[in-house]
Please model this.
Amino acid sequence: MILLPIIALILGAAIALAIKLPAIPGVYGQYLAVACLAGFDTICGGIRAGLEDKFRTEVFITGFVSNVLIAFFIAWLGDQIYINLFLAIALVLGARIFTNLSLIRRYGLTKWQDARARKRLQAQAQNQAVIASQPEPNP
Amino acid sequence: MNPFVSRINKESWVAPVSGMCLVLGFMICMAWVTQSTRTSRQNYLPLDQRQRVNDLNVDQEAYQRVTAEVSKLQLDKTRLEKALSSHDGQSKVLNDSLQELKVFAGMTPVVGPGVVVTLRDSPKYSGTGMGSNIGVSPDATIHDVDALKVVNELIASGAEAVAVNNHRIAGNSSLRCVGTTILVNDVKIASPVVIRAIGDPNTIMGAMNMPGGVLAEIRQTDPNMVQIEAVKSQELPEFVGNTTRKYAKPPKDSK
Model:
């Protein structure tokens, strides 16, 4: 299930390559790169919410669109007022991506460990049941 | 009861996340730095990052291969020109004048006596760890301008051929700084800067060591930054940079 978004990511890139859109040059390319960072952060947040059973589609989709636009806008604004807001965006989004990815890793790890523990306990219970069901040897 | 519970459906996140991933993949592809957008995007990077990006993109091995190829082809050319001229007198005269011009233009290796000037960053300030160039006087490092001035002074004092770190200075050579390194003929060189010149060693030594001259200026910061010595014989490589022209042509009415 985590594979599907990854496949979709590659597919999106493949579509962009297939229809031969030229990469965006100059400063708008820079803005778009920052917007990509925001998009990646939202995706990570979405996966994390999904694993926490808190996912809501409308929140996720509006979040994606607005985060991308806000990142684009902040980067543009920084250039209008001569402040390096690229750095601010990279810092904040970078920190959030790290947090989200580490949480996703923890959920995944816990889930896997739980599954293993359950399997072991089940096997143990089954063994005991088999032993218990065997007839007592006659004295 | 929690009003959100009814809306939350386990595993329902996969489809929307995948959809947005599709969009993100598309965006990343558009924002990717490609051959065509590299130059225009690089201008927006800070100097240190631009240098890192440059270091990644320059294939040193390929560069070495190509320059070796260029020198080999130029040698071959000279050999063929000589072979052609050995048949009769007229073409020999022509070839002699051609070879003369090639030596003048820096298109052939040259051998002769001369001097070696070594410029290095002041050792007084180096080795203070990370960010060692912060707070250090800018005079303590060798800049493109220092190398440029030395080359200029060498030519002015009678050097017939000059090479900076084995890059021959010819008609369309340039010395320029990019970040913390120097470009010679658009090739990055590493410190120390070794400038070799062919000419009369005594004259050049005298001119270079003149009080108030270029070297004296650098020595004011730290005498260890400059080292100059005369050599009996040395070989300078030929110019292997770009020699194609797009715009400059001889005027039509000239013969």
